[in-house]
Amino acid sequence: MKPRILTLLLALALSSPPLQAAAGDTASTPAAPAMPAAPEGAAPTRVLPDPSAAIQADLARALDATTALIWLEAGQQKTLALSAPHNTREQSGTVIILHDQHTSADWPELVSTLRKGLPDKGWATLSLQLPDAPWLEPPARSITTKPDNTAVTEPASNTDTPSTAEASVTYSQKMAEITSAAFDQVQQNKGELVVLGVGTGAVWATAFVRAQEQSSKNLSLVLLDSRQPEHPQAPDLMTLLPELSSTVLDMYHGSTLQENAAANPRNRNNLAQRSELDNYHQSRLPLLPGDRKKRNQWVLSRVRGFMQTHILDAAEQNKEKKRKRRRVATPTEEFGPGGMPVNDGGIDIDMMDSPI
Questions:
Q1: Which residues contact 173 (CB under 8 A, 6 or more apart)?
Q2: Quick one: CATH architecture of 72-131+163-324?
Q3: How far is residue 12 CA from its own chain's centroid?
Q4: What is the chain's percent helix, strand, coil content, to nearest 5?
């Protein structure tokens, strides 16, 4: 049987057309239309990926339908913001939340709990999706030749590549445009305006308050686990803090944040004392191991209580002081014993309350 099978296989091989002919037949079929050639001398078009836009799109798709999405027009870009209205009869104010680097506007650790929990106490929230810091380009190198024809590699001149200062302005301007767009979004809201920064977001929150505090009377800052970004283009927290005149609530967990001067709570407190920041208040949040959900709820309660004491109650006390200083109009013809006039048209309540 085996010789007969081999004979049949050999006959089939000899009767089939050669490979060269098959290839020729294939080449004779119509070819696919060629791509149009680029104009002579023109560089090919290259589309670079946009990680920030992809992250924002993914976050918008992942959120449930009850979350209000707002796309802020920030310069040449659009920035996603998650909005939540207050859930009480009266609105205490609005909190703009800036998250830590490499996280998101709805990050499970602290950010999501704060943006969803603060409305239950009268605070509307607006959580911004911030872009990550850009990668630093390595310095370009050029090759020069010594008199002995030895090639030497030297840094290229600054005219060919953007300088670090220009890159810093570009990144800072992008963040300023985002925070400014958020400020315009909540400008008409009632009550106090609070900017809350978590981690490295505390640095950008401080820069935002420093830029806007002259145009907004009811502006306060909340720092939560402040940390200086490692990127050299970020502003310095320790430089911004002494320049503030707004109320600053500095809250931190334990004593674990010691890697740099800005992250050390003792350094920030000492700086505030030297700079005579009367509205600076610091509070330690003890580390609570165990269930993350319970820990986040506990932090939410502490943040709300700190804001109630040093922002809402303080604002009410200031209003009460202004009412006490207000002069009360009285008849100018009123006279006391002996025919002496009591006042010249008004009396100060502070003087009335003082002992004789």
A1: 75
A2: 3-Layer(aba) Sandwich (3.40)
A3: 74
A4: 40, 20, 40
Q: Please, are residues 309 and 283 in contact by the beta-carbon 8 Å criterion? A: no
pLDDT digits (tens, 9 = 90+) for 2-51: 556 655 555 555 555 544 444 444 344 334 444 455 556 555 555 555 66
Residue ranges covered by each domain of the chain: 72-131+163-324
Say how far apart CA 77 and CA 51 lie, in whole Å: 13
Q: Which of 111, 110, 105 is nearest to 79 (CA)?
A: 105
13 dihedral zone (left: phi>0; alpha: psi -120 to 50; beta): alpha
pTM for the structure as a whole: 0.71
What's the pLDDT tens digit per position in 285-305?
988 777 888 889 999 999 999
- Counting runs of H as helices and runs of E as strands, what totals does the chain give? 11, 12
Q: How far apart are CA 281 and CA 207, in angstroms?
A: 18
